[in-house]
Amino acid sequence: MAARIIDGKAIAAELRAAVAAETRRLTAAHGLMPGLAVVLVGENPASEAYVVSKSRAVVEVGMRPFDFHLAAAAAREEELIDLVQNLNANPAVHGILVQLPLPPHIDTARVLSSVDPDKDVDGFHPLNAGRLASGLPALAPCTPIGCIKLAKTEHASLAGLDAVVIGRSNIVGKPLLQLLLAENATVTIAHSRSRDLPALCGRADLLFAAIGRPEFVRGSWIKPGATVIDVGINRVAAGGKSRIVGDVCFAEALEAAGAITPVPGGVGPMTIACLLVNTLRAACLQAKLPPPNV
Ligand code: NAP
Fold first, then answer.
1. What is the reported pLDDT for 11?
2. Is 122 among the catalytic positions?
3. What does the buried/exposed string (b/e) look like for 198-228 if buried means 16 or more CB atoms within 10 Å of the residue's CB?
4. What is the rounded average pLDDT of the residues 192-217?
5. Which residue's alpha carbon is at the smallest distance from atom 30 of ligand 1?
6. DSSP one-letter code for 3
7. Could you say which of 4, 142, 195, 228 would form a disulfide bridge with 274 (CB–CB 3.0 to 4.6 Å)?
8. Residue to probe by mutation, ligand 1, list 211, 231, 235, 274, most atoms within 8 Å of CB
């Protein structure tokens, strides 16, 4: 039987509507309009497209956007850190996002560490990573939060489920491991040195693929009925054109999985929606209000 399609686009739209309602309530009741600053360095077309869609989403939910664009060639590390520190000190800015990747002459770790952890809506500051790993309240990265929300549309509770995450990046795999542990799943994290990936995947009730390799996970690896969350975004050439595919061979996985996210239209839309949730959370934190109910 073909797997159910987990419609990330529709689920993200619902989440954005909930964020918009909560933003209206905060603005009316407390005069608090959450503000998100997005800093882009350079002319990477994919980054430019992400930044445009993030700013559009911010405006749509009634938040205030602050957009900054530095030319790559002229941008100095100190100039970027000065800008981040000004945003740290600006009370109208509740969230700061520095779009990655940064040009190679800039030390990414140093820039990310200069963001005020309370405004770190990407969850990349080492303090937030450490808090997340310690089970303390933290701003966590948006893509893994979105993965958990999608898995929870299929499973009311993730407790006791066997979860396998392929990929151990700081952006996806590692924070996803921590969020799954917080949900009481039993987690295996695999990477390029893991042995017998098909056997590892075959144990998974929940399979998360964050590898960056087109259609790498085969249908035969998937436990029948498993929930598959495909984080990958890979552009491949097809018949003189190009198209986007995930890290999972979707056509094969449809026959084995119980439910699966498509690419595009799965995890991608959730990432921006969760950025809005994090901005709302950061605004409440800074205003010493209870966390938002989204
Ligand atoms: P990354 O930093 O390149 O990490 C890739 C991970 O995959 C690494 O841990 C690597 O292992 C592992 N890997 C590579 N080849 C492997 C193999 N043959 N077998 C097993 N593991 C292997 O990538 P990322 O930033 O996490 O992103 C992963 C994918 O998600 C990309 O397609 C990216 O575009 C996509 N993504 C999507 C969103 C979204 O919003 N949907 C957000 C972020 C990323 P090692 O550590 O051993 O090298």
1. 98
2. yes
3. eebbbebbbbbbbbeebbbbebebbbeebbb
4. 98
5. 232
6. P
7. 142
8. 211
Distance CA 168, CA 174 (A): 5
pLDDT tens for each residue of 131-155: 999 999 999 999 999 999 999 999 9
Catalytic option among 118, 122, 205, 247: 122
Q: How far apart are CA 201 and CA 249, in angstroms?
A: 14
How far from the centroid of its chain's Cα atoms is residue 115's Cα?
18
DSSP line for 133-153 = HTT---PPPHHHHHHHHHHHT
Percentage, residues of the chain above pLDDT 90: 97
**Tokens representing 252?**
């094969």
Q: What is the CA radius of gyration of the chain?
A: 19
**Residue carrying structure tokens 């699966």:** 260
Q: Where are the beta strands (DSSP E) in 123-231?
A: 162-166, 186-190, 206-209, 227-230
User: Comparing 154-158, 223-227, 238-242, which segment has the lowest mean pLDDT?
Assistant: 238-242
Which residue, 81, 64, 78, 73, is CA-closest to 26?
A: 64
Residue type, 1: M
* Mutational pocket test of ligand 1: of 44, 124, 145, 233, the residue with most ligand atoms within 8 Å of the beta carbon: 233
First vs last Cα of the chain: how many Å apart? Answer: 34
